[in-house]
Amino acid sequence: LLYLFAYCFIVIGLANPQVGAKLEKVKRQGIDVMIAIDVSNSMLAEDIQPNRLERAKQLVSRIIDNMKDDRIGLIVFAGNAYLQMPLSSDYAAAKLFLKTINPDIVPTQGTAIAAAIELAQTAFSDESKTHNALVIISDGENHEADAVEAAQKAAAEGMVIYTLGIGSPEGARVPVVANGRNADYKRDNSGNYVISKLN
Questions:
Q1: Environment class of residue 35 by beta-carbon count within 10 Å: exposed (0-12), middle (13-18) or buried (19+)?
Q2: How far apart, in whole angstroms, are the C-alpha atoms of residue 183 and residue 155?
Q3: Quick count: other Cβ atoms within 10 Å of Cβ 130?
Q4: Residue 148 CA: distances (Å) to CA of 57, 110, 115, 151
Q5: Is residue 6 pLDDT above 60, yes or no?
Q6: Going by C-beta distance under 8 Å and a sequence separation of 6 or more, which residues neighbour residue 105?
Q7: 146 near 114, Cβ under 8 Å?
Q8: Is the pLDDT of residue 140 over 90?
Q9: What is the mean pLDDT of residues 58-66?
């Protein structure tokens, strides 16, 4: 019995069990990525299945799945831009925020791409100016004229901007959603259906 106990203690000793936590400083190697998603009503068009916005959310989810040491933040924009989630390495939280994105979370409609770029500039920290990337996901129907100027200014300050167009050149009608269902399609002042096209 003593030999058996001695043998067990030797095995446990060789296994070197440890209890407690240890803090270790590591240098982060990743980049800061801000993703700006267009949530205007035109993103509900169904020329891309299931619709443009849902496809954009699926793409962002895949981007998050491929991240390792990077930080991610989310911006939603329509008539104005809003910070949905500040930069973080919490990918599970990013996916939770992503699920809540829909056109109802913004008070004004439109497509203010310049506002999204300017908001991204303020959301990035000053010490990481050379490791910043902005991904803009939109159908490109910009209702403001200063998007190109805002992009050039941001690029001059070190931000890398990627654009991802969602939609088809042929376009599709824009659904009018009521009580969670498509009640009709958006019409212009003449009563004709509004067709939203990828720009």
A1: buried
A2: 42
A3: 10
A4: 24, 17, 11, 5
A5: yes
A6: 39, 76, 82, 84
A7: yes
A8: no
A9: 95
How many Å apart are CA 53 and CA 40, to the nearest integer?
A: 9
Q: Under DSSP, is residue 157 helix (H, G, I), strand (E, B) or coil? A: coil
Distant-in-sequence, close-in-space partners of 172: CB < 8 Å, separation ≥ 6: 45, 46, 47, 195, 196
- Return all residues near 198 (Cβ < 8 A) that are at least 6 apart: 139, 140, 165, 166, 167, 168, 169, 171
Nearest in space to 138 (alpha carbons), one of 110, 160, 119: 110
Query: What pLDDT score does 128 carry?
Result: 57
Residue 87 in this model has a pLDDT that exceeds 90: yes
Which residues are CB-contacts of 193 (< 8 A; sequence separation ≥ 6)?
A: 173, 185, 186, 187
